[in-house]
Amino acid sequence: MSFRKHRRDAQKEAARLAEPVREAGALAKKLGLDPYPVNYWVVNYDEMNQLIAYGGFQRRYPHWRWGMTYDRQRKTDQFGMGKAFEIVNNDDPSNAFLQESNSLADQKAVITHVEAHSDFFKNNQWFGLFSEEGLNAAAMLEQHAETIERYIQDPEISREDVERFIDAVLCLEDNIDQHRSIRDAVAGDDERIPRDVRSQLDSLNISDDVRREVFDEEWLDQVEEAEREAAKLTAPRKDILAYLREHGMYYDEESEKAVEMEPWQKDVLDMLREESYYFAAQKMTKVMNEGWAAYWESLMMGDEHFAGTDEFITYADHQSKVLGSPGLNPYKLGKELWEYIENVTNRAEVADKLLRVKGITWRNFSEAIDFEEVQQLLETDPAIHSVRSETLDELADLGADDPRIDHEMLDRALSGDESIDVDRFPWKVLSYEGMAERHFSLVKPQNRGFVRRIRRSELEQLSRYMFDDEVYDSVEEALADVDKTAGWDRMREIRESHNDVTFLDAFLTDEFVRTNHYFAYEYSRSSRQFHVSSTEYEQVKKKLLFQFTNFGKPTVVVYDGNFDNRGELLLGHQYNGVILDMKQARGVLERLYDLWGRPVNLMTITKEFDEHEVEVARRRGREPTPTERGIRIRYDGDGFDEHDLEPELEARIAASDVDYDTKPEEWL
């Protein structure tokens, strides 16, 4: 009976949401968004928590991690530390799940948020790295789940072995080359492990006489040296999972030696690696994607009044909690950056037109311009700003060729088509250009004064290549030519090509940091507590970039698959001033040993503090200076050894301050 009631409740909620879903999709397109089609599903509380645990999908392979995530989410909700309103997956079509207990205001917020996410999934090129040949993620993950379930149920394969193997692979799930497609990142021919020719001869059981006659020692030495040279890596390999798939073995506890991976192990590794590449884009664009969705949700729900009058307070409370959550908040940071980009682009468009007015140059700009007049001239046309059923004639009076009007929809509304309810949905009779003017960022109250704050250096840059600099006779004439779609157009361009690291690097400016009051903080070794370390934008940017480079995790790559000519694996942590968690690093090496089958090594750099120096620094109110030391940790299956790192190896793992390339042509 309770199941039937749940189904009835879900169907009732789905019927209630049919109009908001339809209208939100239409509004998103009016605003220039181009999302995948979205299927909306209404689910109950438990189903929502299960979907969150499964990363937004209904079926995943059997593993304890899902139960742990489910329990954490359930407790988070139960103790009031955060409620799950929705989840949407990157698929074509996308699938979004709405919790049936949400208020209508929350459901509308979720739907507008989802439409923007789906637009981002479809149009961001980092997501495109995985979906070059079409996308059906739900089918892929379901197939993986069924295959791994069959291996677990196979009487010839131990369930414990499958789970242990999955655990080992998951320790390395983010050690892929996320800047390349899954096919382009496959290990190359220069990465094969050299053959042990003498061991192969021993296995043939040939006589010593034949061996001396046919295979002399000098020839064997030459072959082995050639093999070792051929096996050297020409460059470190980021995709550790691909390298292990090609060259890894498995440590067999019964025989106590490395053996070839079983077919099921290679199959599982391939599937988990494929899933890592699928989810990589979401991890690489968290700030951009959530900020993008929060920006368009806010515009639709608030500025375009998609939230009804009786729903707005509930919605405002919902968004304030999302944007006001403590710590590094990707929703807040992303939304503020998108708004800043919009404002800067629109300001540059306005300044460009003003610098073409006769008598105005970058040198006299601040003195020659009446910024109050500029603000008034930029105000939205009243006919566009206040669209209602009784003002439709004013829109018609703008002319049949006015690009700001959706003339087909306006004609239908004027002819009495009741499906065009302009009092509830005024955007229906406007075009993209009309919507851009209606929501032009520089006329919003919170952005008044933004044009005035333009720097002299920015004006000089705009003027540098301006040849037709006396086009307009007046400020009014110049501002009439302002392209009010410039900000949105630029936002869509950026949405297509960037990830979080390049996004922050390109657009986190001194002006943004000062205006939005960002700062960097760090742990003080002398006071044993966190403190604000800097408000300078370079330091804030550096700290933020560290948070997002390589999913915010240490960059570890393969440096040698035949270290010390013993078939040992040598990994290197590309050090950027942030040390590894050594307990966690040792745990990963233990799991990695299972996938390599032979000893594994990890190079890194540690920081060591002299206790006397720490005490002196504490008394003098300063930070102690650490000593950096390169080390190599080796795990052989029984225990760990630590060795000083040779200078040439230490030089190889010393990365730049931020481990990425900022040349745009090399981002994709």
Automatic annotation (TrEMBL):
SpoVR-like C-terminal domain residues: 554-605
Boundaries of every SpoVR protein-like N-terminal domain copy: 16-352, 482-552
Organism in which the protein naturally occurs: Haloferax namakaokahaiae
Pfam families per the UniProt record, alphabetical: SpoVR, SpoVR_C
InterPro entries referenced in this protein's UniProt entry, alphabetically: Spore_V_R, SpoVR-like_C, SpoVR_N
Name assigned to this protein: SpoVR family protein
